[in-house]
Design brief:
Blueprint (H helix, E strand, L loop, with lengths): L1 H22 L24 H7 L15 H8 L2 H4 L2 E3 L8 E3 L5 E2 L3 E2 L1 E2 L3 E2 L6 E2 L14 E3 L20 H6 L16 H5 L3 E5 L5 E5 L3 H7 L6 H8 L27 H4 L4 H4 L2 E2 L2 E2 L18 H4 L7 H10 L6 H5 L9 E13 L4 E9 L5 E5 L4 E3 L12 E7 L5 E3 L2 E3 L3 E15 L4 E2 L4 H7 L2 H12 L6 E10 L13 H4 L17 H25 L2
Parallel strand pairs: 13-20, 17-22
Antiparallel strand pairs: 1-2, 3-4, 5-6, 7-8, 9-10, 11-12, 13-14, 15-20, 16-17, 18-19, 20-21, 20-22
Helix pairs in contact: 1-12, 1-17
């Protein structure tokens, strides 16, 4: 009897030691190649003397820059940021095709342009025309000047591929290379009076920079500061945090570590979104920008030493690193501070007192758990506008990762790619049943009047397609890459590997009921072993 009890005690202590080793052993610090503690200061490239020498008394876009920066100007002119298009070759079932914001249909705002040429929402001047009775005092308020506030980094003309004098003058270098406190990017430039929209004698819309050349010259930066990038990207989709997961105004200025540990410790956007000859490194399944020259770094490029706990570290390195993206565990939630748009309905409108305009019906939510899908980092599903598209169950998939999920191979499962976190977004948009394509929405008309039907009719007229009042739902899976939290906030094992279906949608990933059965059996077996050991130890 003594031998049995001794054996039970040894086994029990061994189990407790194993649990302590996994969960209580000290975590080695996550080391990176670059030590970051405080946010970097803006590095200026003061052009005061250079402008005086060149006789530049007024900023005229890249025309003020090209004489000294010819190669950089040419590269910026042909970049995705200006052209809003490039050749992509990762769309399933398609060869190389030219696509991007210039040609695409956006599930947040409809189309910027019709087939890259006709102005739908690129530039204009929308003022509030039909406010509700209690907001009559807001009538006439300037509410938007079009997508060109950010898209195209231009001074108003639609970007063209031919590099003419007018097109060079149209490229706004300082939309990126300026201190945002002096010449902010995006809609803030309009709101602060740093830039104004106007029509020339031919009725063509332009932007005019209103900041004195002396202040602009001293505010030019060597590379785009974080906050200048965010003034466009954190407000994409029409509002603060509406579109991109975890790109929100909370990232401006000093950033709490719980919101984004990298920016909190001094990283810049350009540390990961590397630029080579003004081509930006991107590879997400929900973006059109691609680069042949710039390559986005992997997490492991900086974090060479990771998953260092004795037993748990081995489990993660052996079973997770090849099949689970770092973001999946290290970004538990998105929309941490500002509510994000998860669904919008362009068939209805409601007045927003905060924005002084009408908005499509929005479903805004905070602190969301991502949707998880496999992605092989190579191919994706995309709808190439304006090709005819037939809805399936009333929906058209706009942008999503290409993935068949996990498949059984004997007793084990195999999958092409890794599990990534996504924001799932739906948008109800007007649809031409006759042409079988989504109809552009004249967004400014919705903002000004709330008349969604007329906005669809005007958009259809610009595109030359019929609109019969039909609507369809566009679906997009948006990469959750920003908002990495400190290591101690990473998902714990039981968040996904509990005895019941938890955060990870195993059925949707192709595993069926096997994970739930396996986790439940493991828990039961462990419980039975523990009961047996306690029984052996304490029975008389």
């Amino acid at each position: 009897m003594r031998g049995t009890r001794l054996f039970a005690l040894v086994v029990l202590l061994a189990l407790l030691a194993a649990v302590a080793l996994v969960f209580l052993s000290p975590r080695a610090p996550v080391t990176a190649k670059r030590s970051l503690k405080t946010p970097p200061k803006i590095a200026y490239a003061d052009h005061t003397e250079a402008f005086k020498k060149a006789g530049i008394t007024e900023y005229q876009g890249a025309a003020s820059c090209v004489d000294c920066h010819e190669e950089a100007t040419k590269a910026a002119f042909h970049s995705y940021h200006y052209q809003m298009a490039n050749v992509v070759d990762d769309v399933v079932g398609k060869g190389p095709v030219k696509m991007g914001g210039k040609y695409a249909y956006n599930d947040f705002c409809g189309a910027i342009l019709w087939q890259g040429e006709k102005n739908v929402n690129y530039i204009g001047k929308a003022v509030l025309k039909a406010p509700p009775p209690e907001y009559e005092d807001k009538k006439g308020t300037l509410i938007a000047t079009g997508c060109s506030m950010c898209h195209g980094v231009s001074l108003g003309l639609i970007p063209q591929e031919e590099m003419t004098e007018a097109q060079v003058k149209n490229l706004d270098c300082l939309a990126c290379h300026a201190d945002p406190a002096v010449y902010p990017a995006g809609s803030k430039a309009i709101k602060t009076g740093a830039k104004e929209v106007y029509q020339d004698e031919n009725g063509t819309w332009h932007y005019r920079v209103k900041v004195p050349i002396e202040k602009l010259a001293a505010a030019i930066t060597k590379s785009p500061p974080k906050d200048q990038c965010l003034l466009c990207h954190a407000y994409s989709g029409g509002g603060p945090g509406f579109k991109r997961p975890n790109l929100e105004p909370a990232l401006l200025g000093e950033v709490p570590e719980a919101v984004d540990v990298h920016l909190a410790r001094g990283m810049e956007c350009t540390d990961c979104h590397v630029f080579e000859e003004h081509q930006v490194a991107l590879k997400g399944p929900d973006t059109w920008a691609r680069s042949e020259k710039a390559k986005a770094p992997e997490c492991a490029d900086c974090h060479e030493k990771r998953h260092t706990r004795p037993l748990l570290g081995w489990v993660l390195r052996t079973f997770h690193e090849e099949k689970v993206a770092c973001q999946t565990c290290h970004i538990p939630h998105y929309a941490k501070k500002a509510p994000t748009d998860t669904h919008r309905d362009w068939s209805q409108a409601e007045f927003s007192p905060e924005m002084n305009r009408w908005e499509p019906l929005l479903d805004l939510k905070k602190n969301q758990v991502p949707t998880y899908r496999y992605w092989n980092e190579k191919t994706r599903v995309a709808y190439l506008y304006p090709e005819p598209a037939t809805p399936e169950e009333g929906k058209i998939t706009y942008l999503a990762p290409e993935s068949q999920g996990a498949k059984r191979n004997g007793l084990f499962f195999k999958a092409d790619g890794k599990i990534y976190p996504f924001k799932y977004h739906e948008a109800k948009v007007p649809y031409s049943g006759e042409a079988k394509i989504p109809v552009p929405v004249k967004v400014g008309l919705v903002f000004a009047t709330g008349d969604t039907a007329k906005a669809a009719q005007v958009g259809a007229k610009i595109a030359g397609i019929p609109f019969e009042g039909e609507y369809v739902t566009l679906v997009r899976y948006m990469s959750v890459n920003h908002g990495v939290e400190p290591a101690e906030n990473a998902l714990k094992c039981l968040a996904c590997h509990g005895p019941t279906l938890r955060r990870m949608p195993w059925h949707e990933l192709g595993y069926g009921n096997y994970p739930e059965i396996a986790f439940t059996l493991a828990l039961l077996i462990g419980l039975l072993v523990l009961i047996a050991l306690v029984y052996l130890l304490f029975k008389k």
